[in-house]
Amino acid sequence: MILLNADKISKSYTEVPLLKEISLSIHEGDKIGLIGVNGTGKSTLLKILAGLEEADSGTITKTNGITIGYLPQNPSFQKELSVMEQILLEIPEHERDVREFECKTILTKLGISDFEKPVYQLSGGEKKRVALAGVLVHPVDLLILDEPTNHIDSEMADWLEKYLVNQSGAIVLITHDRYFLDRVTNKIGELTGDALYFYEGNYSKYLDGKIAREEMALSSERKRLTLYRKELQWIRRGVRARGTKSKSRLERFEELKNSALQFSQEKLQLQTKNSRLGKKVLELHHISKSFGNKVLITDFSYTFLRNDRVGIVGPNGSGKSTLLKMILGVLPLDKGNIEIGETVKIGYFSQENEEMDLSLRVIDYIQSEAYQVSTDHGTLSASQMLERFLFPSFMHSVPLGRLSGGERRRLYLLKILMSAPNVLIFDEPTNDLDIQTLTILEDYLDSFPGAVIAVSHDRYFLDRVAVRIFAFQGNGEIGHYPGGYSDYLEMHQLEKEEQKSSIIQKADKNNPKKSDAAKPAKVKFTYNEQREYESIDGEIACLEDQLADLDDQIAKETSNHLLLQELLLRKEALDQELTFKMERWIYLNELAEQMKK
């Protein structure tokens, strides 16, 4: 069944159309990943689908009674509310007691544990996660998510993937996280500015389909370029547009020329020459850092080599960005010292864009760093570099305030690379960058002759770029792991299993079997345990009856998706409670057996 149909949607904010006659249908069970270069209108399209923005033309048709949940890219809150009050705000009062447990569970999974904290005290990343929890707790027919993976760490992303995969409703989302797209989506929509192309399957299937489409386009382009060359030869003969035939050929030439230029401009290119890097790069000697009682880094040492590719992972707030700021000299060290080579020129791509004068023109912003840059193929002007970064000439005079968030992010990256650094330090570089830019950046880093240090939650990016992982493990400890993110995960899992085995063996050694002569301590119930022991059989039977009734209701309910979602949530909560009661039953009965001896 079609939940929502969009027909020929167009939208403009300037003289250049942002969306031009875009059409799509969203069916039950669809999990659509929307991708495309920054500035092509992805977020605007989501707002139109969610009913938060009007299209200039076109129609949106929704199934009667459809419920929609929407996560904006930059959520806003009522600042006087607490975290829990903000989430419960949209929940009917009679449901709040039932929903509160689920709210707390989701918030905890997303790294928010202080439920009474005022929302105005939250960081930008925490606000995004609270907003995400707020939309997840509402069962809806269609969930629309704009960059849900921004500001969440790898463990949170794993949990969110599983949560969304198990949702029965339809989902439309924008994300740059390619592993996330691969595991969650069953359809990919690529927005190109003047068209929306759909590919059945996940991100891997999209890549297969994209290759096939590009090959067809390349074949057509070769034919078009052949015609273009013929027309060019004809034009160069100096034929004047006197007759109708001459005029039509001139018009055809302009059309071919424009399409050829458009095809070539679709390919973003990164190419700069870098400053020479000497033998000594960065050396960290026994560095430590704490904030109050919170220890982030303890006695950490490492020597970065010229071609190092280090990825840094860990929970939010564990100290990853702090380490980068200490290297940059922004934060002081508590102990130890950092030595930086004389030839080192650092390019720092921070988690948030630098402060920009939004009245400044695009070309002026780039020229504030450099008017030209040296590449392997000669010198390129700031204007030429902008065009290679998918900023066509008509955008060079556009004020920064008219760019999308992703376009500003791409522009900020270009400015850093224009400075010709030989050490690149990235703090969450994949936030707000489109997949095409990320792919080209990864290719650029393959041949980058200097060192790369990157804090990132993007597992694909780390697998693609890193050859060593620093993992913040808490209490100031930082682990070293060779390889990319997947290698780290495998080794970390082995470490946890070995640690668990070691604890069990140690416990066995410290608790040898008592001799027959040893007098056992007297075992007895506490007052509360006695009361629990007397009532637990009845409580378990009651829970089992409730679950049986729920199973019957779920089996019969096939039409009301919202009610079915609520029934499944109640069943999950009862299952968890029953599991807990069964564990208590085992413990109490074992204790009762010991009391008889």
Automatic annotation (TrEMBL):
InterPro entries: AAA+_ATPase, ABC_tran_C, ABC_tran_Xtn, ABC_transporter-like_ATP-bd, ABC_transporter-like_CS, ABCF_ATPase, P-loop_NTPase, Val-tRNA_synth_C_sf. Gene3D superfamilies: P-loop containing nucleotide triphosphate hydrolases (3.40.50.300), Valyl-tRNA synthetase, C-terminal domain (1.10.287.380). Keywords: ATP-binding, Coiled coil, Nucleotide-binding. It comes from the Bacteria. One of its GO terms (molecular function) is DNA binding. The keyword Aminoacyl-tRNA synthetase does not apply. This is ABC-F family ATP-binding cassette domain-containing protein. Residues 500-519 have a biased composition (Basic and acidic residues). Residues 4-218, 282-507 form the ABC transporter domain. Residues 533-584 form a coiled coil. It comes from Sinanaerobacter chloroacetimidivorans. Residues 500-520 are annotated as: Disordered.
